[in-house]
Amino acid sequence: MTDTLLRAMHVTRRFGAFTAVDDVSMQLQPGEVAGLLGANGAGKTTLIRMLLGLIAVTSGRVDLLGAPPDRERRRRLGYVPQGLGLYGDLTVRENLSFSARAYGTAAAALPPGLREHADVLVRELPLGAQRQVAFLAALAHSPGVIVLDEPTSGVDALARAALWDTIRAQAERGAGVLVTTHYMQEAQQCDRLLLMSDGRLVAEGSEADIIGSTTAVAVRTGDWARAFAVLAAAGVPVMLAGRAIRVANADPAGLAEVLKGAGIEASLQPVPATISERMLMLSRQGKAS
Amino acid sequence: MTYAVRSATVRFGPAVALDDVTVEVPGGSVVAVVGGDGAGKSTLLRALAGEVSLDAGTVQAPPRERLGYLPASSGSWAALTVTQNIDFVAGIYGLAGDELAARRAELLDRAGLTPAAGRLAAQLSGGMRRKLGFVMAIVHRPDLLILDEPTTGIDPVSRIDLWRLVSEAAASGAAVLMSTTYLDEAERAGHLVVLDRGRVLVQGPYDRVRADFAGDITQASQPVRAEWAWRRGRVRHEYWPGGAPSAPPDLPPGTTAVEPDLEDIVIALSLARRNTVPS
Question: What is the pLDDT of residues A201-220, one digit of tens each?
Fold first, then answer.
């Protein structure tokens, strides 16, 4: 007997000749918030759809609450898609009672900030409030497993913090939460990260585990515009960072040579890479192979 | 050359979209406007682009043909191919023949869109469509480039590509004003502007915003004053505008000071604005 809420065991999914998810094993425990990262086409959505029982696996096995996803187990899921899954032409109250009926539960009570909007059409609400309503609709039945797709994109920092309060409260009552995100500050809110690339799970753990041995170089120079142009022309993955220039996964000596060749004085300093830079490296390797 | 909106106020009926906002965009730099839905980002960009008129204040912008503007909507025509989209916009600016062919090839290459040149815009991924919109906004080498959320909702790899394109535009001398919902992008800009409900919460180079931030931020499992606290992972951060008390009993054991990042600073300043009774 195990408490594991979600478990994928060597899961593969092919669409014709294309392998969208390739031999992925992962799990989700009660009380944890796990973040699923990956560029477009990395296989995140296909993996989620298999975990939710929306599409079949080609090989391997998915267990939701101890057994393959069926109708009964899927009642204990809460899912907020990126498009929120609300009816814009219904009011807040109507949306919540509709989803509560679908799950056979009582509609969620409205928190103070939403009470004044109870009879407002959802499409007329600001995005932050819409996201809050989508959360309430998905969480009213106290699901054991919660899947959130980009839960806080587009809202301000304060609204984002409020949404994370809700997510954390769910984890504290024992739910397992799986968050897919493109937003790196959102990723940093998770207890554990999973990184997918080209259908495979390539790294798992803390932010440091995800970044692994990828490094970046900060280039500081008086003439950043020319240095930027010279490095871009040399084909290195160069980025502006304030008045400095960042180059992911580069060899400082090689960069120094390029800059010296163009007569540019610069100081080069190795710095830790970001998660995004690690993902950029992976996608470049994917294209090269 | 510096472009700017100064002391700008914009009202839509009773709603104040921009309230006395001043933002300057010097040539050769990237200014990032960050804020949530309804903060006033699009209105600020549209004011500088001449798409919305001010109720008060002034706009300093180049003539229309020296301006490039990528709206928050796709900015391309779904039923045209990538090449047709670029050629159509280039035609408006009088680019044609060999000059257009060379410029188009250069931009497609830099944006990584060369293999997709013959595809309909409708068939592009979200990231590729934003890159096409960017290319169309910059095809005539504008002096001022205005980009409304070029990177929202697209994956981190496409985002880095777009950020590189934006950097290149600034490196070649353009003044760039872009909006974003991503604070990590704002950190990377030379100058960031945080908008909150139509007003500037804070602006400046990130290093200066951090240095000028007043008060302390602490972290603990339980905050002392809930209305000044917010979530960061498993713990809560709390803002003390006048400085944190130095020890128990005013602070629970286990409370530690944190070095605030931009997310902390923006939340702290937003809370200060909401928790302080307006004059």
Answer: 999 999 888 888 888 898 88
Residues of A in contact with B127 (CB under 8 A): 40
The better pLDDT of the pair A121, B154 is held by A121
Q: Which residues of A touch B274 (CB under 8 A)?
A: 158
Residue A181 lies in a domain: yes
Confidence label for B279 from pLDDT (cuts 50, 70 and 90): very low
Per the structure block, which two tokens stand in for B211? 């240095």
Q: Please indicate whether, in this complex, the C-beta atoms of B181 and A274 are within 8 angstroms of each other.
A: no
Residues A98 and A180 reside in one and the same domain: yes
ipTM metric: 0.81
- CB contact under 8 Å between B233 and A191, yes or no, is yes
Q: Which residue of B has its CA nearest to A181?
A: B155
| Domain stops at, among A185, A210, A235 | A210
A227 and A171, same structural domain? no
**What are the residue boundaries of the structural domains of chain B, listed by start?**
2-205, 213-275
Q: Which helix (H) or strand (E) holds A80?
A: strand A77-80
The CATH architecture of the domain made up of B2-205 is 3-Layer(aba) Sandwich (3.40)
Higher pLDDT, A44 or B38: A44
Residue A212 burial (CB < 10 Å; 0-12/13-18/19+)? middle
Q: Which of A70-74, A240-244, A257-261, B164-168 has the lowest mean pLDDT?
A: A240-244
Map tokens 């409900």 to a residue.
B197
Could you list the residue range(s) of the whole structural domain that residue A112 is in?
Answer: 6-210
Phi and psi of A165, rounded to 5°? -60, -45
The one-letter amino acid code at B171 reads: A
Predicted confidence at residue B272, as pLDDT, reads 92
The answer to whether the Cβ–Cβ distance between A189 and B233 falls below 8 Å is yes
Same-domain status, A198 and A227:
no
Say if A286 falls within a structural domain.
Answer: no
Confidence bin at A1 (pLDDT 50/70/90): very low
Rounded mean pLDDT, A180-200: 89
**Helix, strand, or coil (residue A49):** helix
In a domain, residue A34? The reply is: yes
What is the distance between the alpha carbons of residues B174 and B172, in angstroms, rounded to a whole number?
Answer: 6
| B275 touching chain A per CB within 8 A | no
Whether residue A190 and residue B233 make contact (CB cut-off 8 A), yes or no, is yes
Q: Does residue A155 register a pLDDT over 80?
A: yes
The Cβ of residue B190 has, within 10 Å, a number of other Cβ atoms equal to 21
- Best probe of the B interface among A117, A124, A158, by most B CBs < 10 A, is A158
Q: Cα–Cα distance between A287 and A278 in angstroms, integer? A: 14
Helix, strand, coil distribution of chain B in percent, nearest 5 = 35, 30, 35
